[in-house]
Write a structure and sequence with these properties.
- Helix 5 packs across helix 9.
- By secondary structure, the protein is mainly alpha-helical.
- It has one domain.
- The chain is built from nine helices and no strands.
- It is globular and about 55 Å long.
Length: 212
Amino acid sequence: MLHSQSMYQNILHLVTIVPVFFIALSFHEFAHGIVATMFGDPTPRDEGRLTLNPFAHINWMGLLFLVIFRFGWANPVPFNSSYFKHKRFYTLLTAMAGPVTNFLLALIGMFCAAYSAKLGLSGLTLHWVLYFLTIFIDINIILGVFNLIPIPPLDGSHLLRVFAPDPDAAWIGMIEQYSIFFFLMIVMIPSLQRGLLWLVIKTKLLLSLLVF
């Protein structure tokens, strides 16, 4: 009986987490594309990435990591900073657009969760709404925080080039070349996992202060 209940909960969680991830990554990547386009770069539109269609952005390895390890990533929206009038500043804004969008979505989820009972929801309906919103909030925060890690192809990697004295330094290229090993380290080293979890928890706490 307990085994069947556990299996049911795992299936329910999977059925919920995948569409939530699709929503979160679609808005995340679309935000990159729309900001780059606003600054004069036609690349996102030319590459067909100026869309909320999740299948234009999905990275299947990133989705697999999400299902197994509870964090993942999408295919990054390409942009060409040579189109930007203020190259470093606009690159920074374009890179941050995705994580900021995820944090805003998490805030919206928190507001909905806080006031769902006042909308007349109760019983089983309220339970499932809160369950969905909890996963929605967590996935958006995880996606936002994880993408700030300065490892390609994550958004934080653009910060290396923005703030590095030499954007084309050899050590940045080395990080790009061995990025998969950094991901495996995050997965396999407990202290790194705890550090990432700490960042997620602190970010969630800070966002909740804006709601409650």
